[in-house]
Amino acid sequence: MSALALIALAVWAYLAVGHGGFWRTADRLRRGADPRAWPDVAAVVPARDEAAILPETLPTLLAQEYPGRFEVILVDDDSTDGTSEVAGRLAAEAEADAGEAGRATFRAVRVTGREDGWAGKVRAMAEGVRAAGEVEFLLFTDADIAYRPGTVTRLVRAATPAANATAPAAATTGEDGLDLVSRMAMLSTRTRWERALVPAFVYFFAQLYPFRRVGEDGARTAAAAGGCMLVRRSALARAGGLAAIRGALIDDVALGRLVKRGGGRCRLDLGREVASVRPYPRLADLWAMVARSAYHQLRYSPVLLAGTVLGLLLVYVVPPVAAVVGVTELMLSGGARAATAAAAGGTAWTIMAATYAPTLRLYRLSPLRAPLLPLVALLYTGMTVDSARRHRAGRGGAWKGRTVTGR
């Protein structure tokens, strides 16, 4: 136990100081100056059976007061609940409220059936790209995402090259534009299970894909957050287009990798101006969300699955167990090994909690929850194992009435 605790402590020491500051939650999105000419932007919203949630989200996108041409294209992916009709009604209401100074134009595009080799959402995204025409930027967003006023303008400012800015100081900085600007949406934490599991989901994602490294040119780390991805169309085309990731179940990470490997400059950050309103009230709902794609993330490899489980146990479970066992043995019989286990385990557990606390604060939750992260990690370990079990049983990632079995 003392040896395992020392290994876990070494891992946490590295994670805290050498892993791209993954635990930091500060908004680092650069605030550029206005471009001389605002580029055309088309928001692509893949939607399958989203009639119930669109009234909470689509109006926030249609109401964006973007200075340039802004179009919202909802791609109805074979819905059966009247998604297109609801979206059309909401767009008409938004246009009437805006009056002559309409803020965004709207179109609905229908996709029917399935196409071999294409994941449903990626195919819907590709149909949206086709419908958008020759715009400079594409904003891929989800049907459950709500936007604060001015968000689209801020995203475009961040992506626009400084040399295209009106401010002389910005024009001399030498900064290039960004090809992908992604904002990780704030997720719902209204229920008990959401408060227990959602911040950890964000924390684990940032640990897998440190946001700072995503933004470093030349770094291998690449990712994006699917709720909000502003992509330069030319960079996407240069990288091979969405056809290059047509089978991706985790489309956001795949898109980030595609753009970055194609030479694009990327940025991924957290921000409160983008939020998901989709509820996950029960443990079963959150469990299904993670289990749907976890095994796909491991490339359907039993070896990677076993390594992931062992790694999670070592990094998250060993520290508190070593601390408790070590302290207990010290009280009963003493000994150098017990002291080492207690000290190493306790220190690793403290570092773990300290790095988790900023994410809890981001979600306005008490940092006193941080020491319970090992229990949450155990639940996520169970979700990962269950993801593999579902795949082996032929059920794969069931979502929106479709089952994806993978390889």
Write the layout of secondary structure elements.
Blueprint: H1 2-18, E1 41-47, H2 54-62, E2 70-77, H3 83-98, E3 105-111, H4 120-132, E4 137-141, E5 145-147, H5 151-159, H6 168-171, E6 180-186, H7 192-208, H8 211-214, E7 228-232, H9 233-238, H10 251-261, E8 266-276, H11 283-291, H12 294-297, H13 302-332, H14 336-362, H15 373-392, E9 397-399, E10 402-404
Helicity, in percent? Answer: 40-55%
**Name given to the CATH homologous superfamily of the largest domain:** Spore Coat Polysaccharide Biosynthesis Protein SpsA, Chain A
Biggest sheet overview: 8 strands, mixed
Q: Under CATH, the topology of the largest domain is which?
A: Spore Coat Polysaccharide Biosynthesis Protein SpsA, Chain A
List SSEs in N-to-C order: HEHEHEHEEHHEHHEHHEHHHHHEE
DSSP E strands, number: 10
Proper CATH architecture of the largest domain: Alpha-Beta Complex
Radius of gyration: 23 Å
Strand line-up across the major sheet: 3-2-1-4-7-6-8-5
CATH hierarchy class name of the largest domain = Alpha Beta
Give average pLDDT, whole number: 90
List the quaternary state of the chains: single chain
- Which structural category fits the helices and strands? alpha/beta
Query: Shape from CA axes?
Result: elongated
**Overall domain count:** 2
> How much beta, percentage-wise?
5-15%
Number of helices: 15
Low-confidence stretches: 167-174
Terminal Cα separation, in Å? 38 Å
Protein name: Glycosyltransferase
Domain Glycosyltransferase 2-like: 44-237
GO molecular function, one term: glycosyltransferase activity
Transmembrane segments: 303-326, 338-356
